[in-house]
Amino acid sequence: MSVIQIRGGRPLSGSVRIQGAKNSVLPLLAATLLAEGECVLHNCPNLTDVDHTLEILRSLGCRVKREGDTVTVDPSAPTGYTISDTLMREMRSSVVFLGPILGRMGRARLSYPGGCELGPRPIDLHMASLRAMGARIEEQEGHLECLGGLTGAEIVLSLPSVGCTENIMLAAVRADGVTTVHNAAREPEIVELQDFLNAMGADVRGAGTSMLTVRGGRPLHGAEHTVRPDRIVACTYLSAVASAGGEGEVTGVDWRQLSTVTSVLTEAGCRVKSGPDAIFIAAPERLKAVRPVRTAPYPGFPTDAQAVVMAALCKGEGATVFVENMFSARYRHVDELARMGADIRVEGKVAVVCGVPALHGAKVRSTDLRGGAALAVAGVGAQGETLISGVYHIDRGYQDLCSDLACLGAKIVRLNTTKEEI
Length: 422
Ligand code: EPU
Known about the structure:
The protein is of the alpha/beta class. The chain has helices spanning 22-32, 48-59, 85-90, 98-105, 124-132, 162-172, 188-199, 231-244, 259-267, 306-313, 333-339, 369-381, 391-395, 401-407, and strands at residues 2-8, 12-17, 39-42, 63-67, 70-74, 82-83, 107-111, 136-140, 143-147, 154-156, 178-182, 203-205, 211-215, 224-226, 246-251, 271-274, 278-283, 293-294, 319-323, 343-347, 350-354, 363-365, 384-389, 411-416. It has two domains: 2-19 and 229-421, Alpha-beta prism (UDP-n-acetylglucosamine1-carboxyvinyl-transferase, Chain); 22-226, Alpha-beta prism (UDP-n-acetylglucosamine1-carboxyvinyl-transferase, Chain). Helix content is 31%, strand content 26%. Strands 22-23-1-24 form a four-stranded mixed beta sheet, with helices on one face. Strands 2-15-17-16 form a four-stranded mixed beta sheet. Strands 4-5-3-14 form a four-stranded mixed beta sheet, with helices on one face. Strand 16 and strand 17 form a beta hairpin. Bound molecules: uridine-diphosphate-2(N-acetylglucosaminyl) butyric acid.
């Protein structure tokens, strides 16, 4: 088993290039299933979630090859339409395969993904949308039995779900006729999926706005694409510099996608300079509290950045209020931050962070992906040694957290250890 060891409490200084985005690459890989020819994705991050997605593609009969950060998928002769219960449980987002499997194979069988560490994560909108397109979906003993024959439809989402918008796009490109999605998610990952589908020959328009239109039924061929940088990983490393003090640079990022987070860090006293391909940050000795941070769908403050920014503000002067509007159980890192000396009170969706002058190192456990990253952010700013266990959560979304933070000057290593030692 692995643990991350951090010797914190010293200012950072350095530069790091940001990996390809997890939340882009997963729907892009699902999209490859729709092509009649080979697809090539460059800059694929090396993550356990990506490994699981490649396993799903293999289990559906695709030929998959990974060389460095390039993944080649040959989906010309898919044979399966089932995702095993094990693979569905490994990764909740495997539900994004429902649309493409139905579109390509005409039927799909997958188990119900259920809840996860962030609280209940229903898929009612996914099912209602695909049903509106003509899919017949039945729930049978914990799995979903789905039959296709999809046609275009007018779909109004009650909330702008990212995964649901992706699922509709992936189903609609193969459906007969026009599909329109109102109140679609506007995340950059939706724009990237549109660009990739269009490179395959699809006709998708409107991504990045609340209304998406897909003219379905066009033949889809193979395509090549370079996965865009991970905005949440970039937010994590900027927060690490804010937490530890000093200065640093993240490169290969689009600053416009991070502006809600960088404006919070600026309000906290950091100096942030955004260039065309990089963001520079210089942090003061001590941050100051900021106005309430409310998570919201893009372009609002991302729920995925809540934990890492909170970790940085634990040492801010004054009290900061966080309101988590997206997931009901996304404060599980709070108890772990408390072990490091943080003073945070949670009441439902509100967390009040009362800044303390200093954090101290401690033995802590990752509770989920971003919660785990938040412990590293706190650790680089804490006096003494922090040991983080539950590293497999972090591996789902960070290709090499330790090397990246080391590039920023942190004293951080990954150790292989036996359970008794920690
Ligand atoms: N929701 C429903 N019904 C549905 C679908 C969603 O009620 O059918 C609710 C969810 O329960 C949640 C809200 O809608 O309360 C938003 O969920 P959404 O569907 O937008 O999230 P997702 O597609 O499941 C993606 C990211 C998450 C990120 C959210 C929000 C991927 C693979 N995952 O999840 O990323 O937090 O959007 O931005 O793209 C992470 O990277 O750590 C992560 C959890």
